[in-house]
Every structure is written in structure tokens, then in C-alpha cells.
């Protein structure tokens, strides 16, 4: 059983060897060697080989006859081949003999071909060399013509294209050695031209800026006339057109370069008028040319750094103002023109070159310039004290800002600075109007304005809003109630408002902001300047009472005109005066304060004049009793009464309608009259109670009584209408009481003194009570009996022999001492 399986396995392996590729029989053979029947397999394999050999032999015996037939035919062909060989040899020999002439012709043809090839090579070399020579000659011509950028491009083409094609020739080597030198020369020349260009635009930047500002001004006038059109950039060509123009200038307009490095001649005004843009005044070809040259040379970064560095230096020079710039407007204009010219050039370079300057660089320069401009203007404008110059400077700054804003530069800081200068402008205006108001006050005659014709009346009413129907009905000639001061001041107030409005123009402020600014400035003018001027006029030494009365009338009319000023401001600003946040004018309070000051000055001046009369008073306190007629009033008092009558007549004869001046003759006149009477009473009482007056005679009391009667007569006469009953007499009541106390020296003297003293004070000091006790107990008095004193008194002998008048003088002295003490106590609590 095992032998059968082994035989079957060997048979399978043999079939696998016969049918499998020889590269894959390794595993099959390994299975044979791994087994134990290796010899059996070899025997089996030899038997299989022998079977195959027998089959091969059978196959060869089957095809052997055909092979023999093929050999026989091949032997026959060999003979034919020998014959053919002989024929071919013979034919070759004949052909060789016949081709010798052809070979000679072919050799000649070959030589011709070689010569032709050499000629073609020579022509080719010349074809490559001639362009080199021609280009080098053109390079020399361009250098001689100072066309450096084309020369640089030619040298670049010569070095990179033509010389490599020409080959290794000596002249090519010489040219290659000269090309770096030519580039160095071109670079140095371009840099020299750039330096000349920078120096020239530094010199002519004011002309460039002047042209740009003039164009901005023209554009602004056009924009204001056609408000519906949007604002276009001023004085600038489009970016694409400018860029194309820059390239054209750098390539085809290099011949325009002059010794002035690109700045056109501006001496000819006609040629300047034909320039349409500020950039057209400048030939930027040196910049473009130098930029292209350095770009080709691979030094663009070097050129950019150098250009920016130089322009920064020029910016610092341009931004440095002259020390006397603030003296004239031309100094500011030249300063602004240079700055505008500088940034117009930079803006044009920014838009016509690719990366020479970028937006960040220009913005950095502008930030530097803006800070220096604002600082310089703040410093120099602070020296200015002329409002017209400040206003012109403001207009120039606005035009300067609008010009640069048209080129895309932010200018908000300039307008903020203008608002700061607005405060300074307001202070300068206040100083100017202070001088104006003082001149008006100094030139005013403080008398009503006489008007003789309708034309004159309309002239004054057009200057000042006078609304008085009663005055209009009066026939000519007539007088206006106020003096020349009123219409002049009202006109000056309007002029001040116009001046404030002029400054507010073109500041891009809303109507509300302009209205608020004007009202605040006007309030300052009213409360500070005009108020101080009015007080100055009121406080002057040579101002009389009539002038003060006229000041009161003037301020009253100006106070009534304040609402007209409100309407005037509302009309010019188009902001209603009843707006919620609108600032109100303080004119009413200003003129009220001035009127009150004038009234106080009237009272003070009148009292001072009364004091001058009272200084003439010379009472003889020890005068005897006059015999016969009663004493007459003192001369000084008569003059004083006459003066007061003439003075108060001014109040009662005021011009104009009674309604207008009812306040003046009523309140002011009554107050002045009452104040004068009280001052007279107080002054006379002080004379009477002067500590230096130790004794007063009956004659002096009679003279004082006459003067008091004169004063009371003046009060009863009613120098000023409006007092009720004997109100004015109350001013002399204290003086009359003291006089009565001093004159009633008979039986009721002590009783009157006691009543008078207890009337004025309730708690007298102990010393005063002691004096009263002595008088009551130890000094009994009688009209008919001599004075008797108790014997214990040390003065009994003297008092017994004194007369009645001497005793009365003693009583008067004691009474005066009591009155001094009494009035001294009362002054601490109330004013006499």
C-alpha cells in the first residue's frame, strides 16, 4: 500500500517538474530530498528521461530527409554565387575607372563647401559683432546727450545679450571692462541731478504752494456757488494719468532737464497763468530717472532711503518758521506756501512712483508737520494784537487746511486750533472795543441829541431802534432823550457781532455752535468791556450830576434795546432766540448795574458837594445872644440850598416823554434829595456833637436853630415832587430834637433832659445816673431865686454867687457829655 502511494507521489512530482518553470522547481525538489525515497525517485526520473529520448529520436528520423534536400539545393546555389561575384567585380572595376573624374569634381565641390561654410560663419560672427559695435556707439551718443536712463538700458542690453553672442574678442573684453565705469558715471550723474532737483524744489516750494492754494481758493468759490456738486480733489491729476506722464517723462522727455533741475521759469506771468496744476510747475523727470537708474542697478533701497532722508531734512527746514513771522500776514502766507508746496510734491511722487514713498511715510511726515505747525501758530499768534490780522490769519489757515485736505491729508487739528485762536481773537476784540467805547465816552457831550429835520431823525433811528410814538408826534426841532453815546455803542455792538461772525465762517460749525459762540463773546463784551468803560466814565472826577443823569438815561435805553440785539443775532445765525439751549445776553443786568453805579455816584457826588459847603461852616459856639431881630441863616447854608435847588431842577426837567423818565425824576431824584437832607442833618449834628465842643452858648443855639429852620423850609418847599406829606422833614427830626433840648433850658430843662435821655437809651451807665441824681437832688433851680447849694458841698460859696447863665452853661456841658455818650451807643446799632 505504501509503495503505491510513493509511486503516485513520484509521478505527481515528475509531472510538476515537466509542466512548471525551472525557476519554480526548487520547492518540488526539496520535497524529494526531504523524503526517504530519493533512490526510487532517481530511478523513476531516469526511466522518464529515456522515454523522452526515444520520442526525440523518432521525431528526428521523421524530418531528416527534408534536411538533406535543403543541403543539396544550397550547393547548387554556390556555383551561381561565384558567377555573380565575378560579374560584380568586373562591374566595379569599370565603375572605378569611370569615377576618377567624378571624384576630382567632388573634391573641388567639397572645397567650395568648406569655403562657403567659413564665409557663413564669418557673416554670422559679423552679424553678432556689428550690433555690439552699433549699440556701443549708441551708448556713447546717449552718454554725450546726457540721456542716462536710455544709456543704462543700452548698457544692460549690451552686457546681457549682445556681448555673449559676439564671443570672446578683445574689443568685447574692453567693452565689458568699461561698462561698470559707465554705470558708476550714470549713477553719480543721476544723483547729482537729484540733488539739484531737491535743492530747486526747496527753493521754489513757496511758488508751488501758492499755485496750489490759489487753485484751492478757486475750487472753493466754485463749490460754494454750486453746492450740489461733490467736492473734487484740488490741483491733482488722476493717478493713472500722472503715472503715465511720469513714465513718459522718464523715457521720452529727458531732454527737458535744465540747470534748474526741473522747475519751470515762473518769471513770465502769462506762462504761469497757463499752468493748470501745481504739479505742472515741476519736472519730476530727475526723480523718475534716478529711481529707474537705481532700480536697474539693484540699488533701489539705497535710493529710497536717501530720498526720504533728504526730504525729512527739508521738511524740518520748511516747518521752521521765521522769528518775525507774526508781524505781517505775508510771513504766514510764505510759511504756508512752503509747506503746501512740500506736500504737493510728496503727494505727486506718492501717486506717480511705485514705492519710492508710501502712504505710511507721507502720513508720518504730515503728523510731524502738523504738530510743528500747530505749535508754531500757537506761539506766533499769541504775539498778535491786531484783530484784522488774526482774522486774515484764520482765513489763510482755513484755505491752507482746505488745500491739504483736497490732497487727502487730515486737518482736524488745524480746525481745533482755530477754535483755540478764537478765544484769543475774542480777547483782542475786547481790547479794541474797550478803546472804542472809551473814545465814544470821551467824545460824548452827555446831552440829548437835537434833531431839526426828519432826515436826521431817521438817521438816528436807523442806527438805534428807538420806539417812542409820543416823541414822533412832536414837531421839529426836538431832542432825542439819549446822547450820541447810545447809537454809537449800539452800532459798535453790532460791529462786534459781525466781527465774531466773520471768524466763525468756514470753520465747519453748525448754526447752533456759531450762535452760541457769538452770544458768549457778546456777553463778555457787555459784562466786562462795556461795563468797565461805563464804570470808568461814571467814576471820572470831572463828571457832573447832569452827566450822570444822562448816563442813567443812556443805560436805560440800551437796556431796552437788548432784545433787539437778541433778534439781530438770531437773524444772522438763523437760530431762534427761544431755543432750549440758546445762551441769553446779559445786557439787561450790565446796564442795570451801570445805572445803579451812576445813581450811587450821584448820591456820593451830591454828598461830597454838600461836604464842601459844610466845610465853610464856622460856628462861634460861645457867641452871645443877639438883641433885636432874629438871627439869619448862615451864608454857607444859603449857598448850599441854592445849589440843591438848581441841582434837583435837572431831575425835574428831563427831556422826553414822562413815561420814559418816570423812574428817573421819581426814584432817583427822591432818593438823592432824601440822601442830601439826611447828610446835611447828620453833618450838622456831628458839628454840634463834636468832642472838641465843650460849651455852647445860647447865641450859638439861636444861630443853629436859624439854620435848621432854613433846612426845614427847603424840605417843605418840595424841591422834588413825589414825597408824601412831611416825609422829607423827617430827615431833620433828630437835629430838631437836639436843638429843642438845648434851647429849652428854663424850668422844664431837667425834665426834658430826663425824657430825652430815657427816650434814647434804657440802661445808662452808673456815672451818668450819678450825674442826674446830683442835678435833681443837690441843684434845685428856679427862675427868680438864686441858686442854693447845701453847705456840705465844696462848691457852695462859688455856686451861690454864680449867675443864672453860668449855671446854664454848666448844665449844657453836662448835657453835651450825656449826648455824646448816648449817640455813641446808638451808632453801634443804627446809622444816623
UniProtKB/TrEMBL annotation:
It comes from Hippocampus comes (Tiger tail seahorse). Belongs to the SEC15 family. Keywords: Exocytosis, Membrane, Transmembrane, Transmembrane helix, Transport. Component of the exocyst complex involved in the docking of exocytic vesicles with fusion sites on the plasma membrane. InterPro entries: EXOC6/Sec15, EXOC6/Sec15_C, EXOC6/Sec15_C_dom1, EXOC6_Sec15_N, EXOC6PINT-1/Sec15/Tip20_C_dom2. Residues 219-251 are annotated as: Disordered. It comes from the Eukaryota. Residues 219-232 have a biased composition (Polar residues). GO terms for biological process: Golgi to plasma membrane transport; intracellular protein transport; vesicle tethering involved in exocytosis. This is Exocyst complex component. The lineage of its organism: Eukaryota, Metazoa, Chordata, Craniata, Vertebrata. Pfam families: EXOC6_Sec15_N (PF20651), Sec15_C (PF04091). Residues 413-738 form the Exocyst complex subunit EXOC6/Sec15 C-terminal domain. GO terms for cellular component: exocyst; plasma membrane. Residues 44-213 form the Exocyst complex component EXOC6/Sec15 N-terminal domain. The chain crosses the membrane at residues 753-779.
Amino acid at each position: 500500500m505504501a509503495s503505491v502511494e510513493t509511486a503516485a507521489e513520484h509521478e505527481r512530482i515528475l509531472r510538476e517538474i515537466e509542466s512548471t518553470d525551472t525557476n519554480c522547481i526548487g520547492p518540488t525538489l526539496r520535497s524529494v530530498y526531504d523524503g526517504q525515497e530519493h533512490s526510487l525517485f532517481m530511478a523513476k526520473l531516469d526511466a522518464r528521461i529515456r522515454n523522452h529520448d526515444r520520442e526525440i529520436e523518432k521525431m528526428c528520423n521523421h524530418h531528416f530527409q527534408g534536411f538533406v534536400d535543403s543541403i543539396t539545393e544550397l550547393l547548387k546555389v554556390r556555383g551561381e554565387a561565384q558567377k555573380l561575384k565575378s560579374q560584380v567585380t568586373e562591374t566595379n572595376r569599370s565603375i572605378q575607372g569611370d569615377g576618377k573624374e567624378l571624384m576630382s569634381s567632388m573634391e573641388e565641390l567639397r572645397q567650395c563647401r568648406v569655403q562657403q561654410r567659413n564665409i557663413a560663419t564669418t557673416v554670422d560672427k559679423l552679424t553678432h559683432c556689428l550690433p555690439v559695435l552699433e549699440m556701443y556707439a549708441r551708448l556713447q551718443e546717449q552718454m554725450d546727450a546726457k540721456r542716462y536712463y536710455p544709456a543704462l538700458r543700452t548698457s544692460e542690453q549690451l552686457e546681457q545679450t549682445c556681448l555673449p553672442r559676439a564671443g570672446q574678442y578683445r574689443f568685447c573684453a574692453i567693452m565689458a571692462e568699461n561698462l561698470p565705469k559707465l554705470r558708476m558715471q550714470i549713477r553719480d550723474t543721476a544723483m547729482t541731478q537729484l540733488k539739484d532737483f531737491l535743492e530747486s524744489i526747496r527753493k521754489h516750494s513757496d511758488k508751488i504752494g501758492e499755485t496750489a492754494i490759489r487753485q484751492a481758493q478757486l475750487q472753493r468759490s466754485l463749490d460754494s456757488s454750486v453746492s450740489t456738486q461733490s467736492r473734487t480733489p484740488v490741483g491733482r491729476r488722476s493717478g493713472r494719468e500722472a503715472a503715465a506722464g511720469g513714465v513718459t517723462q522718464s523715457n521720452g522727455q529727458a531732454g527737458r532737464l535744465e540747470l534748474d533741475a526741473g522747475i519751470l521759469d515762473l518769471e513770465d506771468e502769462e506762462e504761469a497763468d497757463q499752468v493748470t496744476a501745481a504739479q505742472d510747475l515741476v519736472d519730476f523727470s530727475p526723480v523718475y530717472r534716478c529711481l529707474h537708474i537705481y532700480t536697474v542697478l539693484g540699488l533701489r533701497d539705497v535710493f529710497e532711503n536717501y530720498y526720504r532722508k533728504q526730504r525729512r531734512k527739508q521738511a524740518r527746514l520748511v516747518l521752521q518758521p521765521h522769528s518775525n513771522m507774526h508781524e505781517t500776514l505775508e510771513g504766514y502766507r510764505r510759511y504756508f506756501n512752503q509747506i503746501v508746496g512740500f506736500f504737493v510734491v510728496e503727494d505727486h511722487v506718492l501717486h506717480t512712483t511705485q514705492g519710492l514713498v508710501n502712504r505710511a511715510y507721507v502720513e508720518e511726515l504730515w503728523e510731524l508737520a502738523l504738530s510743528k505747525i500747530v505749535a508754531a501758530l500757537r506761539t506766533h499768534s499769541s504775539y498778535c494784537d491786531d484783530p484784522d490780522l488774526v482774522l486774515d490769519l484764520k482765513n489763510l489757515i482755513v484755505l491752507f487746511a482746505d488745500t491739504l485736505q483736497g490732497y487727502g491729508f487730515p486737518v482736524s487739528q488745524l480746525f481745533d486750533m482755530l477754535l483755540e485762536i478764537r478765544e484769543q481773537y475774542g480777547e483782542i476784540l475786547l481790547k479794541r472795543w474797550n478803546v472804542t467805547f472809551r473814545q465814544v465816552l470821551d467824545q460824548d457831550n452827555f446831552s440829548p441829541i437835537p434833531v431839526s429835520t426828519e432826515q436826521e431823525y431817521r438817521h438816528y433811528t436807523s442806527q438805534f431802534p428807538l420806539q417812542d410814538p409820543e416823541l414822533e408826534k412832536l414837531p421839529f426841532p426836538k431832542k432825542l432823550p439819549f446822547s450820541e453815546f447810545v447809537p454809537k455803542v449800539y452800532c459798535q455792538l453790532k460791529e462786534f457781532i459781525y466781527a465774531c461772525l466773520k471768524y466763525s465762517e468756514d470753520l465747519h460749525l453748525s448754526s447752533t455752535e456759531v450762535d452760541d459762540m457769538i452770544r458768549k463773546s457778546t456777553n463778555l463784551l457787555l459784562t466786562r468791556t462795556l461795563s468797565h468803560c461805563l464804570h470808568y466814565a461814571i467814576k471820572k472826577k470831572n463828571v457832573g450830576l447832569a452827566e450822570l443823569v444822562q448816563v442813567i438815561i443812556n443805560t436805560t435805553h440800551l437796556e431796552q434795546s437788548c432784545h433787539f440785539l437778541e433778534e439781530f443775532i438770531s437773524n444772522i445765525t438763523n437760530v431762534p432766540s427761544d431755543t432750549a439751549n440758546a445762551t441769553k445776553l446779559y445786557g439787561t443786568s450790565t446796564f442795570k448795574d451801570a445805572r445803579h453805579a451812576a445813581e450811587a455816584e450821584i448820591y456820593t457826588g451830591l454828598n461830597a458837594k454838600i461836604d464842601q459847603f459844610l466845610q465853610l461852616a464856622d460856628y462861634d459856639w460861645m457867641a452871645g445872644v443877639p438883641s433885636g431881630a432874629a438871627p439869619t441863616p448862615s451864608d454857607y447854608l444859603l449857598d448850599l440850598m441854592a445849589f440843591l435847588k438848581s441841582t434837583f431842577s435837572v431831575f425835574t426837567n428831563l427831556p422826553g416823554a414822562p413815561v420814559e423818565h418816570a423812574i428817573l425824576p421819581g426814584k432817583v431824584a427822591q432818593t438823592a434829595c432824601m440822601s442830601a437832607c439826611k447828610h446835611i442833618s447828620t453833618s450838622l449834628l456831628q458839628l454840634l456833637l463834636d468832642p472838641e465842643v465843650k460849651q455852647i452858648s445860647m447865641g450859638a443855639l439861636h444861630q443853629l436853630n436859624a439854620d435848621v429852620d432854613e433846612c426845614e423850609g427847603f424840605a417843605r418847599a418840595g424841591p422834588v415832587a413825589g414825597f408824601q406829606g412831611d416825609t422829607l422833614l423827617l430827615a431833620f427830626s433828630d437835629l430838631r430834637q437836639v436843638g429843642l433840648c438845648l434851647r429849652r433850658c428854663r424850668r422844664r430843662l431837667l425834665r426834658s433832659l430826663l425824657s430825652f435821655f430815657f427816650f434814647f437809651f434804657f440802661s445808662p451807665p452808673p456815672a451818668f445816673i450819678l450825674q442826674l441824681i446830683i442835678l435833681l437832688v443837690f441843684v434845685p433851680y428856679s427862675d427868680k431865686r438864686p441858686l442854693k447849694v447845701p453847705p456840705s458841698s465844696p462848691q457852695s460859696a462859688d455856686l451861690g454867687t454864680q449867675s443864672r447863665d453860668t449855671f446854664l452853661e454848666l448844665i449844657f456841658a453836662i448835657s453835651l457829655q450825656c449826648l455824646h455818650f448816648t449817640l455813641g451807643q446808638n451808632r453801634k446799632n443804627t446809622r444816623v
